[in-house]
Design a protein that fits this description.
eleven-stranded mixed β-sheet; three-stranded mixed β-sheet
């Protein structure tokens, strides 16, 4: 009888252990202390864990520093503040703080020993706006990956270069603080993600718009080497030439050029020194009424070492598998609603200069309607489609890791662009294929839900194996310019030749000429 009781108690204990082990990881430990998350279905969600010290006071415009340890248990049940940025309805100043370097985690793991693949999200917003807490991609996490979403400094606080900042830096650089934040967060992930059931050797970075451009820059930065094994870009790449002048459309800035912008900003604010700028309230530097914007990563020779096109030509980059996707009508979100044929002609001449007549052949605008589409298509190709093509094309020639090209063209009534002239998938619409917008409404959006399911399966397969292919999915080969290897998502998934070929080839010729021109000026 005693032996039977012992056996029963042992079985009960074993069952209890199995039950506990099967629960989400709601409590764990990081290098700075204990943390507790919240339950979201079967996921453990940690909404705000500081990965760096608040970049305030004398730490403004400096590289991120380690977060301080805390006592007791940090309850990560609320998202951290938005980085200071232009206010708008629903995004007020009280929601923002310079103390913004937090990350969020959604994990399906039930044990720290699960060693699940990790996907690290970098949000978009033109390096000026948005927030890491927009989505923790729960639908991806439920497929067996740990999701991490990271915040970084934006606008002037994240990307202002200045001669005084360069002088005080031991590495002789300034600007790119937001990128340094991203790298610091990835280093944190390497040291801590195992305690959330993640595998630090299986990290995939992914992002949209400025987040995708960040992924592209991280793929070329020596400072990010070894911090991830794969990348997914949704509408973004960084392959434009650069000059020693402040950044302009289609032409990035060196640190020298970015410093000129920083000095112009100081003059605009009526301040005499960096010391005075550091004393200013954060919103006085970043709100929309400041009247000065356009801060962007620069070629500083440290985080970004050179024209990324040239780096890829030489094979000087972090050679990891990539998926690079663009949308069919990216420019619909940016084309001015009141665009006229006359204004369009002036814009084309201002942007393309001596190339304007040829540009108008590929992006005509003889009527107001045609001008709206011409502007949108030119914006799509210059800003998103050509950099994406350059990325997969160059990596297919000089890299050992595969590059997969994708094109989202699913017809839908839903869009972030409210203009009725939109004819395809606008910029940022791809987010709805990841966040459950369509998956949770399959009756209302059957075609979009089907495409969302396909995309999410490809993305998670890629995070798990560095290959998007899997059972039940159309085979997706690595990019080959001579073959139909671009995966088009439209009422399913099928392979096509690279889209908008003639326009992209024109932009390629234009950028080649600009690159040769700027390089000639530096000789």
């Amino acid at each position: 009888m005693r032996r039977l009781l012992t056996i029963v108690l042992s079985v009960c204990a074993l069952m209890l252990t199995v039950h506990v082990q099967g629960q989400p990881l709601l409590k764990t430990h990081v290098e700075t202390g204990d943390v507790e998350g919240v339950l979201d279905g079967t996921l453990a969600v940690y909404k705000a864990i500081p990965y760096a010290a608040p970049p305030v006071g004398n730490l403004r415009w400096r590289a991120p520093q380690p977060a301080k340890a805390w006592e007791g248990v940090l309850k990560a049940d609320k998202f951290g503040p938005w980085p200071p940025q232009p206010t708008r309805p629903g995004r007020t100043a009280d929601m923002m703080s310079e103390d913004c370097l937090y990350l969020g985690i959604a994990t399906p793991a039930t044990s720290v020993d699960d060693r699940l693949p990790v996907m690290v999200w970098i949000h978009g917003g033109g390096f000026q706006t948005e927030h890491y807490g927009g989505d923790l991609w729960k639908h991806l996490a439920l497929r067996g990956v740990v999701i991490v979403s990271i915040e970084y400094r934006t606008g002037a606080l994240g990307f202002m270069a200045h001669p005084e900042l360069t002088k005080e830096s031991k590495d002789g650089h300034s600007g790119n603080y937001g990128l340094l934040d991203q790298i610091f967060a990835l280093q944190w992930v390497q040291r801590n993600i195992a305690n959330f059931g993640g595998d630090p050797s299986k990290v995939t970075i992914f992002g949209e718009s400025a987040g995708a451009i960040s992924c592209s820059m991280l793929c070329a930065s020596p400072l990010a080497k070894g911090l991830f094994r794969a990348a997914i870009s949704q509408s973004g790449g960084s392959f434009a030439p650069w000059s020693d002048k402040p950044r302009a459309l289609g032409l990035d800035a060196s640190q020298k050029g970015a410093e000129q912008q920083g000095l112009a900003f100081q003059k605009h604010l009526g301040k005499k020194s960096l010391k005075e700028l550091r004393k200013m309230d954060a919103m006085s530097l970043c709100d929309g009424n400041v009247g000065f914007s356009g801060f962007w990563p620069c070629v500083d020779g440290y985080v970004i070492c050179d024209d990324q096109y040239r780096l890829y030509e030489r094979g000087e980059y972090n050679d990891v598998p990539v998926i690079v996707m663009t949308n069919s009508d990216e420019g619909a979100l940016f084309a001015p609603g009141n665009m006229t044929a006359e204004n369009y002609q002036k814009s084309v001449k201002g942007i393309f200069g001596s190339w304007a007549d040829e540009a108008l052949k590929f992006y005509p605008g003889t009527t107001d309607e045609e001008a709206w589409h011409g502007f949108g298509d030119a914006f799509r190709d210059m800003g998103f489609a050509w950099p994406s093509y350059a990325w997969v094309s160059l990596q297919s020639k000089t890299g050992k890791s595969p590059a997969y090209a994708a094109f989202l063209a699913q017809p839908s009534e839903r869009s972030f662009s409210g203009d009725p002239r939109r004819v395809g998938v606008a910029h940022a619409d791809d987010i709805m294929y990841l966040n459950g917008e369509f998956l949770t409404q399959p009756d209302k959006y059957p075609a979009e839900a089907a495409v969302a399911e396909i995309i999410q399966q490809y993305w998670v397969n890629f995070a798990k194996t560095c290959n998007p292919n899997g059972k039940g999915l159309p085979y997706w080969p690595a990019f080959d310019e001579s073959k139909p290897t671009t995966m088009q998502f439209s009422n399913g998934a099928s392979l096509i030749m690279r889209p908008n070929r003639e326009q992209i080839d024109f932009i390629d010729r234009y950028y080649k000429a600009k690159r040769e021109e700027t390089e000639g000026q530096r000789r």
